[in-house]
């Protein structure tokens, strides 16, 4: 085979970078590596180390599969509670099942501009792969070409796409099923099957290399921001509250904040850049109310914080009932009343959030954002929500592993598109409830739920794929509605949920409704729970004076709720086919008095 001098030089440069933890860069492919790594799946790693997957290793190659052209792509791993025991508490934190079942989540991110092969090797201690048919890529609709290389190695052909791809690679011998038993979720096959998923997750995030005009938009340019970039020194970080610059730049390397500290940036800081290969253990809080950015393909990890690390309790576990205002969030923003503010969130991976990962305080009507190529992994605890998408905002091309409400569509003029979700048991995928709201013009499109372990032993009001939960003040009350608020023109389309599922939708209307359209909701199959616990619910609540919310509007001919091409397996659910009932495959148990307010066709 002809090997050019250039490729030999390039390979030498590659080896040098590989050894020195620098990004490995060719024109069409960026991968990276870390120096201080620990292959450890059961205890916290040293502050100065990064946990590497002890199960998978990943390489990427452009077209030529010659050994010299395979680039190592660092494969990170998250484990429940970062390998700690419960720390100064013994109440439930949501990670019990994941710990008991020894779940791990590995991931590898690279950037590319051309079609590539992704090579995945299993550690020698893992069972061999009998056939390439025992390997599943999810979402299954991606249909990537895959080949067996040897008994522990496969390769996957990943085409270039500007929007990138975020997918899971799954090996048959690592799948396990969760069952519902009298003692809670369990691997004990005596119960009813809830969901099947890999014990050792592997996610691949193939993201575009930033090019053209995007370079200055997403990567701080020293020529433009001269003297205004603070290059954070590697190692321990605890001085960020007083820096003078406008940009905090994390170059490739490992950074760690103390467990009882998070960065509260002064108002002058409005851009955080995490270079590919930067790994930051800590959390960020902005005080700037100007336009802000969080960009780059580095990692922000909450692994050092305890579950519900409460600033009001010196970062120990919260001792209050709830700590919405005072627990550490991975990303926290401040918005001024009446002052328009725009956040650009591009790239970054948030791992092991100890609580809500993203919250805005102040005026949520003037805060807008554009989020893309964002990843959330290792969401073992309760309350590890996805994102609240503020008014006039967009969210696209993103992956969420989440153990609570994932996509919170509480505001108008929002577009959410092309999202991959891996769902743990708590909370729904799409949420617009918890209080009465006025919302219009929301599009949620192309949501691929690759795993859905949503489960509860009773009929929860804050669950299912689509949900408008009852009022947070009094979740049992039916008179918490406000009929004067109106939710209008919500289009939720192309929602696919792979594997076994518990339930489709629970809508407790706390506001009046016009034109909510759910189109092409596909559920691969129901799990084995009783039909009565899989019901979809639709109820119209009242206010304190007994006034009920209105569903639809006869004067302008706007309907209430339309289910268009709702499909379970291969069965399309329609009113006419009479297969919608709770005891039938549609599992709809909508209030009888709403019969004229919804349709399924
Ligand atoms: C492979 O797995 C073994 C057993 O868990 C572990 O000791 C070893 O560190 C792993 N090797 C790598 C490279 O991950
Ligand atoms: C609906 O929201 C989108 C996204 O913010 C926006 O571009 C569009 O102008 C809005 N449509 C109307 C009629 O306001
Ligand atoms: C209806 O949904 C099924 C299952 O997702 C899909 O295959 C089919 O294309 C959809 N039909 C239309 C007309 O969109
Ligand atoms: C119902 O439609 C009529 C006619 O367009 C409109 O005047 C009225 O405000 C609508 N009611 C609500 C609650 O939106």
Automatic annotation (TrEMBL):
Q: Which residues form the Glycoside hydrolase family 49 C-terminal domain?
A: 477-600
Task: Enumerate the spans annotated as Glycoside hydrolase family 49 N-terminal domain.
Answer: 27-207
What the entry lists under InterPro entries is as follows:
Dextranase_N-ter, Glyco_hydro_49_C, Glyco_hydro_49_N_dom, IPU_b_solenoid, Pectin_lyas_fold, Pectin_lyase_fold/virulence
Query: Its Gene Ontology molecular function terms?
Result: hydrolase activity, hydrolyzing O-glycosyl compounds
Signal peptide as annotated in the record:
1-21
Q: Which domain of life is it from?
A: Eukaryota
Q: Identify the Pfam families for this entry.
A: Glyco_hydro_49, Glyco_hydro_49N, IPU_b_solenoid
Keywords from the UniProt entry: Signal
Q: Is Signal one of the keywords?
A: yes
UniProt protein name: Dextranase
Q: Which organism is it from?
A: Rotaria socialis
């Amino acid at each position: 085979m002809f090997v050019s001098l250039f490729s030999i030089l390039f390979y030498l440069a590659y080896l040098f970078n590989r050894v020195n933890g620098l990004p490995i860069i060719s024109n069409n492919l960026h991968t990276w590596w870390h120096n201080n790594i620990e292959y450890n799946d059961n205890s916290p790693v040293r502050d100065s180390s990064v946990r590497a997957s002890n199960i998978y290793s990943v390489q990427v190659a452009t077209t030529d599969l010659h050994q010299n052209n395979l680039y190592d792509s660092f494969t990170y791993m998250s484990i429940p509670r970062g390998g700690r025991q419960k720390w100064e508490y013994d109440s439930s934190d949501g990670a019990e099942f994941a710990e008991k079942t020894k779940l791990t989540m590995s991931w590898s991110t690279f950037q590319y501009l051309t079609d590539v092969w992704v090579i995945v090797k299993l550690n020698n201690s893992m069972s061999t792969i009998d056939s390439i048919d025992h390997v599943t890529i999810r979402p299954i609709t991606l249909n990537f070409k895959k080949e067996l290389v040897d008994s522990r190695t496969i390769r996957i052909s990943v085409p270039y796409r500007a929007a990138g791809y975020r997918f899971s690679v799954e090996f048959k011998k690592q799948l396990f099923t969760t069952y519902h038993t009298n003692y809670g979720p369990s691997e004990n096959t005596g119960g009813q099957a809830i969901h099947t998923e890999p014990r050792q997750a592997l996610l691949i995030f193939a993201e575009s290399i930033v090019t053209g005009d995007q370079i200055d938009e997403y990567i701080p340019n020293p020529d433009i921001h001269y003297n205004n970039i603070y290059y954070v020194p590697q190692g321990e970080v605890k001085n960020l509250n007083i820096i003078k610059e406008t940009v905090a730049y994390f170059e490739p390397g490992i950074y760690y904040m103390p467990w009882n500290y998070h960065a509260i940036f002064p108002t002058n800081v409005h851009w955080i850049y995490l270079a590919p290969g930067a790994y930051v253990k800590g959390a960020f809080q902005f005080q700037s109310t100007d336009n802000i950015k969080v960009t780059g393909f580095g990692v922000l990890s909450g692994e050092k914080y305890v579950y519900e690390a409460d600033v009001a309790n010196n970062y120990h576990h919260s001792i209050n009932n709830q700590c919405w205002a005072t627990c550490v969030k991975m990303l926290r923003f401040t918005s001024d009343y009446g002052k328009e503010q725009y956040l650009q969130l591009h790239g970054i991976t948030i791992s092991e959030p100890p609580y809500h990962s993203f919250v805005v305080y102040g005026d949520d009507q003037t805060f807008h954002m554009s989020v893309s190529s964002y990843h959330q992994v290792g969401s073992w605890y309760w309350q590890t929500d996805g994102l609240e998408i503020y008014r006039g905002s967009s969210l696209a091309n993103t992956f969420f592993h989440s153990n609570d409400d994932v996509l919170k569509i509480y505001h108008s003029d929002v577009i959410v598109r092309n999202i991959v979700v891996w769902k743990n048991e708590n909370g729904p995928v799409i949420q617009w409830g918890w209080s009465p709201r006025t919302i219009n013009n929301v599009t949620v499109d192309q949501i691929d739920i690759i795993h859905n372990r949503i489960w509860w032993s009773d009929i929860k009001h804050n669950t299912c794929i689509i949900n408008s939960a009852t009022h947070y003040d009094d979740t049992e009350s039916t008179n918490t509605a406000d009929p004067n608020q109106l939710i209008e023109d919500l289009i939720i389309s192309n929602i696919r949920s792979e594997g076994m599922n518990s339930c489709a939708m629970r809508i407790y209307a706390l506001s009046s409704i016009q034109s909510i359209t759910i189109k092409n909701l596909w559920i691969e199959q129901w799990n084995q729970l009783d039909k009565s616990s899989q019901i979809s619910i639709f109820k119209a609540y009242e206010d304190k004076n007994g006034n009920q919310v209105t569903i639809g509007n006869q004067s302008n001919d706007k309907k209430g709720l339309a289910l268009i091409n709702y499909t379970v397996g291969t069965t399309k659910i329609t009113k006419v086919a009479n297969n919608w009932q709770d005891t039938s495959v549609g599992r709809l148990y909508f209030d009888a008095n709403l019969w004229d307010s919804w349709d399924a066709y």
